Fold this sequence. Notes:
Elements: H1 5-9, E1 17-18, H2 24-34, E2 38-43, E3 46-52, H3 53-61, H4 72-75, E4 77-78, H5 89-99, E5 103-108, E6 116-122, H6 123-146
Parallel strand pairs: 1-2
Antiparallel strand pairs: 2-3, 3-4, 5-6
Amino acid sequence: MIRKIVPDVISGQTLCTIRPEDTVRTAARLMRERKVAAVLVMDAERLVGIITERDMTARVIAAGLNPEISTARDIMTADPDTLSPDHTAADAIRMMKLHNYRHLPVVDGAPGGQKKVVGMVSVRDLYAVYNTELEQDLAHRNAFIYGESYGASA
């Protein structure tokens, strides 16, 4: 089965966003409150960046920045790669593996036109999809081997 990012992997997400001028402390608090590992940086309705736990570690803590005065703009990954809702889970995994990402924003809209952020897919989301798929496959195999489907039909 081909699983599309929306609705098979993510759907109905509440976006976790901050503005480029918000402080790093604001981003960290939001991540803690929402129990997420990444936030989208939005300038009005336009995606301008992403901040992840890795960014917090490498670009703030390791660099010795003050989270009270450093801004999201200072540490974000600007113009991040994105997926469309029609991309598949396999597409997301390939992109994450190729670029060593753990989170990818999902953006809907025509190339060159207005684009709208509709969610964020994480490696954890993809793991959950494939784990469920494997469990279902195992249940079907067990039913075939041990259940009514076993044996020849008359």
